[in-house]
């Protein structure tokens, strides 16, 4: 599903962990001169809600300041608890939920005031004394001595890291299924794959993971002659899917299994595992983990994975209108000087990506590149924790560089030949319900033809909220003839926690 369903909102706070006693890490001015964004709280009705770029929670790190207490780290990535753990092996570092044992009153902006009984999520055990935590969407330092780990028994259902209730709840009504089925490029691609492989699918056992209303299973039953199609769906929509199968007289072939794929029991392994699992920035929702789990348990050796590969693409772009309506707006509304609100606007509107952006090809400043390529046959679940890719773009025309836009493509390898079918959600292909994802810089950079935009992207899966991730962008802009960059930056975007 696309971004629209991932409405989430950050609670408003801005923390600058410049308190030396709190053990601020060195932020290398070359590698990370810009600000970092940390994730906040998600709206409870998140899966269905409209995405609102509001109330973001962004932390700024001043470049060049050095702090003695901690070793050098180029970039402080709050969401990257895994990395923190590797760097700071404190005894009780494990991320997770903690309860505040006694009131704590913040003495610095970078700290959080908390009351006895408050629950927080540990994001990073920065030093043995000071831990970086999240509380209701606000992030800050708290003395480690005030925290007590919440044991599994005390854990409430509200804190399910997979948010299954909200997640599957959002798929029990028709709204999202209508959106997906109406997406012609998406649905027709799956149909084409089945059609092109109809002969090869004869007698095969197929598993359709997250079948929703069953469309892919129906295509299989209609156009091929598989032995069986297991249509696995965990949400309540599965009841309707069962009725549809009966009504369309496919009960002999399609077996609807109303279950989480993780709990699946089958009489035998399958030959084909097909699924439409892609989300914002390809991986958000991390339904991909379910697909990989099922692959490892239920796909025959040498079986088919559809999609077979997936790629994340990116391009630097101009986004004049976005920047004008959200930031420049404050220059002189109704002839008044509202410029003092611009930093607030940047924080509020630009600290999360825009998941429903539609990139005009004219706004591309260079050719796009492929950041990451995933092979569904070999990809390991652990590899989802941190995925990264470098980029080098050659700017092809003068223009304002406002940010980066990403999209994804997936390929379906044909069973009997070397051909494949592609679904590309990018700006050079018909628009899909996933649209494009825009990551805006806090300030645009004037670029010229011949400039080089280089850097890297890191996807860090949230160690606690397993369907979420943060995207770290590092970039530099270098003029054609220059050897050193004239502009460098780093920004972390939560999606959505
Ligand atoms: N087991 C069963 N059904 C699932 C699972 C799972 N582990 N995960 C997702 N679904 N492309 N990002 C179902 C979900 O209930 C919904 O109907 C469908 O798969 C999502 C498909 C679109 N989401 C996406």
UniProtKB/TrEMBL annotation:
Q: Does the keyword Electron transport apply?
A: no
Q: Which domain of life does the protein's organism represent?
A: Eukaryota
Q: Does the keyword Cytoplasm apply?
A: yes
EC primary class:
transferase
> Which reaction(s) does the protein catalyse, per the Swiss-Prot or TrEMBL entry?
L-arginyl-[protein] + 2 S-adenosyl-L-methionine = N(omega),N(omega)-dimethyl-L-arginyl-[protein] + 2 S-adenosyl-L-homocysteine + 2 H(+)
Give a GO cellular-component term.
nucleus
Q: Where in the cell is it found?
A: Cytoplasm; Nucleus
Please report the name of this protein according to its UniProt entry. Protein arginine N-methyltransferase 2
Tell me which species this is from: Pyxicephalus adspersus
Traced from the root, the source organism's taxonomic lineage reads: Eukaryota, Metazoa, Chordata, Craniata, Vertebrata
């Amino acid at each position: 599903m696309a971004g629209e369903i991932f409405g989430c909102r950050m609670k408003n706070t801005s923390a600058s962990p410049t308190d030396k006693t709190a053990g601020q890490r060195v932020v290398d001015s070359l590698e990370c001169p810009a600000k970092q964004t940390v994730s906040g709280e998600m709206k409870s009705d998140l899966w269905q809600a409209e995405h609102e770029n509001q109330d973001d929670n962004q932390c700024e790190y001043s470049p060049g300041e050095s702090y003695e207490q901690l070793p050098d780290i180029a970039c402080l990535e709050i969401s990257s608890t895994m990395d923190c753990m590797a760097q700071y092996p404190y005894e009780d570092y494990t991320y997770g939920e903690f309860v505040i044992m006694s009131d704590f009153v913040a003495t610095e902006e970078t700290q959080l005031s908390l009351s006895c009984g408050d629950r927080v999520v540990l994001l990073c055990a920065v030093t043995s004394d000071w831990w970086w935590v999240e509380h209701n969407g606000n992030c800050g330092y708290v003395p480690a001595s005030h925290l007590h780990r919440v044991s599994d028994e005390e854990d409430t259902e509200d804190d399910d890291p997979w948010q299954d209730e909200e997640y599957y709840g959002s798929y029990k009504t028709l709204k999202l299924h209508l959106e997906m089925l109406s997406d012609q490029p998406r649905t027709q691609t799956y149909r084409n794959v089945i059609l092109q492989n109809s002969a090869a699918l004869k007698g095969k056992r197929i598993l359709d993971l997250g079948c929703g209303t069953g469309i892919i299973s129906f295509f299989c039953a209609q156009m091929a002659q598989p032995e069986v199609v297991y249509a696995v769906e965990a949400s309540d929509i599965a009841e309707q899917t069962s009725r549809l199968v009966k009504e369309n007289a496919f009960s002999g072939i399609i077996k609807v299994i109303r279950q989480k794929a993780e709990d699946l029991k089958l009489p035998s392994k399958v030959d084909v595992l097909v699924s439409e699992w892609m989300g914002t920035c390809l991986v958000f929702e991390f339904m991909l983990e379910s697909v990989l789990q099922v692959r490892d348990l239920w796909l025959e050796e040498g079986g088919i994975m559809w999609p077979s590969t997936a790629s994340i693409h990116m391009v630097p772009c101009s986004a004049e209108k976005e920047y004008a309506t959200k930031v420049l707006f404050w220059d002189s509304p109704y002839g008044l000087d509202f410029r003092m609100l611009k930093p607030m606007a940047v924080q509020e509107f630009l600290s999360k990506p825009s998941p429903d952006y539609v990139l005009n090809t004219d706004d591309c400043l260079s050719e796009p590149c492929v950041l990451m390529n995933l092979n569904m046959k070999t990809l390991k679940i652990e590899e989802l924790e941190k995925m990264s890719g470098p980029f080098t773009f050659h700017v092809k025309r003068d223009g304002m560089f406002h940010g980066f836009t990403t999209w994804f493509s997936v390929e379906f390898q044909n069973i009997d030949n070397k051909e494949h079918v592609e679904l590309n959600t990018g700006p050079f292909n018909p628009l899909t319900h996933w649209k494009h994802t825009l990551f805006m810089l806090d300030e645009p950079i004037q670029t010229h033809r011949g400039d080089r935009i280089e850097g890297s992207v890191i996807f860090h899966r949230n160690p606690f909220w397993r369907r979420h991730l943060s995207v770290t962008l590092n970039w530099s802009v270098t003029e054609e003839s220059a050897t050193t960059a004239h502009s460098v930056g780093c920004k972390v975007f939560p999606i959505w926690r």
